[in-house]
Structure formats: C-alpha cells, structure tokens
Fold this protein.
Amino acid sequence: MWVNVLRYPHMRIVSISDTHNRHKQLPPLPAGNVLVHAGDFSTAGKVTELRSFLEWFSSHPHDQKILICGNHDKGATQRNGKANLRDWSAQPGHHYLDCTSVTLVKLTDGRTVEDDLVRPADIEQGPGFAIKFWGSPHCRWINAKWAFPHVDDDQENIIAALPTPREVLKPFEKMPDVADVVVTHGPRYGVLDYLPGATDGPRKGPHIGSSGLSDAIRTTRPVLHIHGHIHEQSGTFDDGGGTLTVNAAICDGGYNATNPPRVVDLSDTPETGLIATVVRV
C-alpha cells in the first residue's frame, strides 16, 4: 500500500558510520532532524582522533546528534577519552549511547527535542512525535585487539578464557523489549553482514553478523536498525518483518570515503502505524 508519509508527522534521520578519520573529507551532510554515527569514527583508536571527530560532529545543524563507538574506537575506553565523551554528551542535543537509550520528540513547530525537555507550551498545537533510540557500540567478537565485543553463543569458550564478567560480554541481552530505533556498530547475522573470504561467522562462513543481536532484534522489533562495520555491505535492507536495516558505512573496503550517508524518514500514519522509509537525496 502506497502512503504519502509526508502528510503525517515524521522525523528525518541522517545516518553515517565508519568514517575512519575521513570525516573532514566528506561533502556537506543532508539536512535532517537527527544525525546518527554508528561507530568507527577513528582508525588507530587514539584520543586525539576522538577529539577531532567530536568537534566536527558537533558542528552540524541537526537538532539532535546520536553517537556510538565501534571496535576501532579504543580511545573511548581510556580515561581522557571517557572524559571527552562526558563533556560532549553534556551539551544540549548530544547523546552518547552505550547500551542506553534516549527518547526524542519531533514537535509540531519542526524542532526535535529530548522528551524530558518538552514544555507544556511546546505541545499546545499537538503532542509531538516521540521516537525511542537504543544504542550499543558492540559487534561480534573478533579478537582481543578490538574494543566493545559481544560474544555469541557459539563463542562461549572465549568467555571462560577472559577475566571480563559474562554480562559485559553479552551486551545485546540488555536491549529493551521496546525501542523504535536500534543503533549498533556491528550487524545482525545474515543481514548486510557478508564479508568475502571470512570464515569466523556463527556458521564459520562469510556472514559475520552477531547471532545474539539477531535474537535481540527479533524480540524488540524496531522499525529501524542502523549499523556499520562491514564496509562492503553499505546500503539498506527491508526484512519484510517490520524492520528496515541500514548499513551506514561511509568507507568502502579500501577505507575510501565513497559511500553516501543514508537518510530515513520515520512516520506514524493511520494506515500503517510507525514505518521507516528510505529517502533518496
């Protein structure tokens, strides 16, 4: 059924990921209400890379900015990097998600704000349009070199060999039962996760997404899942079950910033309820 979603309240989300220090090489980003980066803004995991990226990310005019890290972003795990992220997140409209959530409201006057900042005067003309985002920087375990691993069930032997508590290595189990948009660095198994020649996926093949993330997505059923990590699979996929998946990786397999940002409108219509629609820009 074709629906003119722009007739109804909608929130425009601009998604990027895997910029790997190429952020200043990018052309101007598309306009939107929310700008999302799904991790791997750095390459070597240095705090200086983190600071450069945060300054650039903050410069954009989008009302709200959502950031998660990725496996390359080890600077975010260091003391100075954590302090930089705390300071960045303290600014209005800046949200760093680490297995946490934020609810944003698109008001009838066009502004997008956090739900706890909505004032009575803001909703005199209507209640607005609320979307809950949940984000996690994790992806399927690769090796001890990388940050923010999730250990899938077929990798349980790794848990026994590590000093890290099990609950830390199973972050996707923290996904809430209800979230409209899920942002993770890595993909779920079988969806935009194909890496030619890889043999370390859940079935020892080239699909290297997380089976634990697949289970969580099936339970939560967000209308939109944004990720990156697999540069070669940048694009979108509608699974037919109500979840649109966006791989927002900007860099290609050669770490060239050649892939476009991905733009999606979230709309709430009487005919369909909440839906996600890819926007061509």
Q: What stands out?
A: The mean pLDDT is 93. The helical segments are 47-58, 79-89, 156-160, 211-220. The longest strand covers residues 129-136. DSSP finds four helices and 15 strands in the chain.
